[in-house]
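Lab channel / #folding
Pinned by the channel admin:
"Please post every new chain as: sequence first, then the structure tokens as a reply. Keep commentary short and put observations after the output so the thread stays searchable."

First post following the new format, from NK:
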Amino acid sequence: MTAIVGYSDLLRLKKCDEETSRKAIRYIYSEAKRLEKLSFKLMKLMSISEENIVFNNFEIKDFIQKVVNSESFILTENTIELDIERANIKGDKELLEVVIRNLIENSNKANPKDKKILVKGKRMKNNKYRIFIIDKGRGIPKEHIERITDDFYMVDKSRTNGSGIGLSLVKKILNFHNTDIYIESEENVGTMVHFDLQEAEK
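Reply from TO:
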């Protein structure tokens, strides 16, 4: 949604060349269709249990690379750096894409001082695979961290145009994957978010 607004503003406020205009229109259309498809799935998600979700096996490095290289992050001023170990993961790709996108967008909004966001993937023990999203942005006050995944909760309404459902949605999706979101943050230092996924059986 952030990128759709960004491309719309680009078309609305600036005189673009034909190629840029076509690219922006193509992206707005494709993202709107993706969000439409996702909205149906999320409405369905509200009424189903974990057992009803069909998980697939997929390669995590290629998956994250594709998400990061999508046009939705072209407008950001920050560089997204990847350090991803290859592994086959079991999960719902569409919903996990929502998780990755939300967390990277949050890091973008945190205005990293070094203009960098690190996405790291590491194989752990017991067939677990851990994904980190790390930034050196504004950070989150300690008193807000425990509540930040609550529905409609926003740390600072004056600094966001969001609805406060992003991290709540992330938490719910991860819960369906038998995992949770963990947040470490310090004001004016940065934030590290991580979660574990299950490796696919060989």
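NK: The mean pLDDT is 82.
TO: also worth noting, Helices lie at 2-13, 18-45, 60-68, 93-109, 142-145, 166-176.
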